[in-house]
Amino acid sequence: MKKLIIIFCCLPTFCFAKIQVATTTTDLASIVREVGLDKVEVFSIAKGTQDPHDIPAKPSFMVKLRSTDLVIAQGAELESAWINPLIQGSRNPKLMAKDGFYELAAELDPIEVPKGNISRADGDIHPGGNPHFQLDPMRLGKAALLIADRLSSISPGDKDFFLKNAQKFQTLMNDKLKNWKDRIKKTGITEAVTYHKTFSYFCDRFEIKCDVQLEPKPGIPPTPSHTLSVVNQMKKRNIKLVLIENLYEDSVAPKLKQEVPNILIDVVPVSVEGEPGISTNEKLIERLVMAFEKGKK
Amino acid sequence: MRFYILFASLFFTIFFSNRAFSFYTPSISANALFLYQNSNFHKEDANPLNLDEKPNGFDVQETELQFYSDVDPYTRLSLLLSVAPHYVTDGVKISHEWGIEPEEAFAESNVISDVTLKIGKFKGAMGKHNTLHPHAYPFIGAPLANDKLLGDEGFKDAGVSAAVLVPTSWFNEITLQYLKGKGDNSEFNSPAAAQGVGLVHWKNLFDLTDSTTFEIGGSFAQGGNSFRQTTALSGADLTLKWRPSEGGKYTSFLLAAEYLSRKQSQAGLTDEIGNGLASWIQYQFAQRWTVSYRYDDLGIKNTFDPNLLPNGTITRNSLGLIFAPSEFSSYKFEYNQTHDTRLNADQDDTEKSIFLQANFTIGAHPTHSY
Fold it and tell me: Rounded to 5 degrees, what are φ and ψ at A181?
């Protein structure tokens, strides 16, 4: 009888234990929620308002990672400065194993992969390519499938469940993509200035030219001479929209407004939870599409 | 000669690491510290009969070469070589020589739950500052207590270590170390073969908010000393850090304090007791700019050092300004005012020093601990 009671008490733990997932960004956490639903518990190390290049490796994250089954990162060296010390500090052998740490960027056809010799003289260059794929609906859909596959390896019995949810998410992204593309096309905006190369995938997908950045080089804050060259480019090419990721200061905004007439400068979130109300990947991209619509007005 | 061999080896390693062999080569980084200093207690023209280890002027303070990598699925290895100049005199002329030494060389476990085991030569977990490398010091020099009680290179030795992550809801780590006691530190250099040093460090860190953490730690070490008696160290540290989760790239604040005490015994003499406190603040007011201030002191009673007064106290105020163009370079300007028991040539007991330090890192340098 005693044995039966013990088995009965432990049964829920074995049968209904949720997969514990940590993600480096809120964008990935949002996808994991869509794919895993109630079979997964997920937390993001970076907040949506933080620059994921530069997260303090707080020991409190090591405590959270101690009982984690899987860490999912964007990859392409985005988190390399802080994720390894956190995983090592967690002293969790599951995360040190090959399957415990999963970087997605390399499997999502990265863009802006540098060619030839690169050095830090070029700024904060990522040898693995641009890591900010979170603003491309197509790649988000593919990321959901990859995540479903990895969750299935932890809980093979739920493979169909994860796959179905991932496909549903991918379909949503693909359906919305057409709508978003049409709306951006209607704005007539074909070029925009951004602070960092966070929008490269977004611009690539929506056929916007975003080759002018407020940073003179990745990771280097704007300088007066570079700001002047941005002003000249905007005037020459008639660029009227500036998107400043809300991770960065908008201190150059007054200068741009003063020098270039009739421009819209929008300080925008670039991650889920980067702004109140932006709770999903869909809402984040919707917010950015609306920034373009606002730029048209 | 060793210096050139080392750099030649590094060059070839980096050359091959950029190619197909990158999988097999460890992560490599190098750091260089250049320092200009000027003090009313030092001179530029050094006297061969009275060697000044820290003459005024410009010099290479230290360079570091660091290699680290996983050995296999079970272990990772770190090797840190320090290359630093020092002055040697034969009584007629002073020569500037370079020395290379393994500052740290240790292997750590990769696959044990809740514990990190470590073996090799490493910095003892005696407080928080002692575990830092010079290029990560918040000020140019270590706190007076660390410098005088643990030696100018800190407490480091060969030994074994186990850092246990205690299963609590906050970060709670207990580190136990046994060190050989025959290393660079005279306070533990026992002539008895089996007399090592036992050390325990307890570290707790609490997230007060998403932006603020509070860390409190305590340390104790005891071992045989060169007088065939016992030396005991005890320490405590507090750190409050604030870095907002919105706009944290542009502003942050740190308040830290560290207390260190050393008690040394020698047969037939009253115990020597030294203790000191360092407390400092750092305020980052722009993406690249930080100001800092430190007060630290050191008092030694019944000193065994015949060159010092039996009961002396040193106090120091330091004011710093740091400009960091990127995470891989920084320039630190610092002014120190030190009240000491010593007098300079002008019979002044207040040392006034200015420092300008340039700090550069290349390669894959591991992240410093939080």
Answer: -60, -45
Tokens 């620059």 — which residue?
Answer: A51
Query: How far is B149 from B261, CA to CA, in rounded Å?
Result: 8
CA B64 from centroid of its chain's CA atoms? 13
Distance CA B252, CA B241 (A): 8
- Residues of B (91-130) whose Cβ lies below 8 Å from A: 108, 110-116
Instruction: Write down the pTM of the prediction.
Output: 0.90
CATH 3.40.50.1980 segments of chain A:
11-105+124-171, 175-296
CA–CA dist B366, B64 (Å, integer): 13
Of A296 and A135, the structure prediction assigns the larger pLDDT to: A135
CA B265 – CA B260 distance, rounded (Å): 17
Closest residue in chain A to residue B18, using alpha carbons only: A117
Q: How far apart are CA B155 and CA B124, in angstroms?
A: 6
Q: How many CA atoms lie within 13 A of A284 on its CB side?
A: 28
- Which residues lie closer than 8 Å to A157 by C-beta, 6 or more apart? none
Asked if B248 has any chain A CB less than 8 Å from its own CB, the reply is: yes
CATH for A11-105+124-171 is 3.40.50.1980
B108, B241, B254, B326: best mutation site toward chain A, by most A Cβ within 10 Å?
B326
How many CB pairs below 8 Å do chains A and B form together?
Answer: 88
Strand partners, A267: A244
Q: Which amino acid is at A248?
A: Y
Checking if the pLDDT of B339 tops 60, the result is: yes
Mean of per-residue pLDDT scores for chain A? 93
Q: Collapse the DSSP code of B269 into the 3-class scheme (helix H, G, I; strand E, B; otherwise coil) and give the result.
A: coil
Position B250 in a domain: yes
Give how far Cα B154 sits from Cα of B150, B175, B365, Å.
Answer: 5, 18, 21
CATH of domain A175-296: 3.40.50.1980
For strand B27-39 and strand B57-70, is the pairing parallel, antiparallel, or unpaired?
antiparallel
Q: List the one residue out of A60, A86, A81 whose CA is nearest residue B214.
A: A60
> Could you read off the pLDDT of B109-158 as tens digits, one per residue?
988 999 999 999 999 999 999 999 999 999 999 999 999 999 888 999 99
Measured between CA atoms, how close is A59 to chain B, in angstroms? 6
- Cβ pair A48, B361 in contact under 8 A: no
Q: List the end-to-end C-alpha distance of chain B, in Å, as a whole number.
A: 37
pLDDT tens, residue by residue, B358-368:
999 999 888 88
Q: Which chain A residues are within 8 Å of B210, Cβ to Cβ? A: 47
- Which positions ≥6 away from B172 have C-beta within 8 Å? B165, B166, B203, B204
- Environment class of B102 (CB within 10 Å of its CB; exposed 0-12, middle 13-18, buried 19+): middle
Q: Residue B143: how many CB atoms within 10 A of its CB?
A: 31
Asked if A190 has any chain B CB less than 8 Å from its own CB, the reply is: no
CA of B150 vs chain A CAs: smallest distance (Å): 26
ipTM for the whole complex = 0.89
Nearest to B116 among A49, A91, A221 (CB): A91
Q: How many structural domains is chain B composed of? A: 1
What are B20's two structure tokens? 């197909």
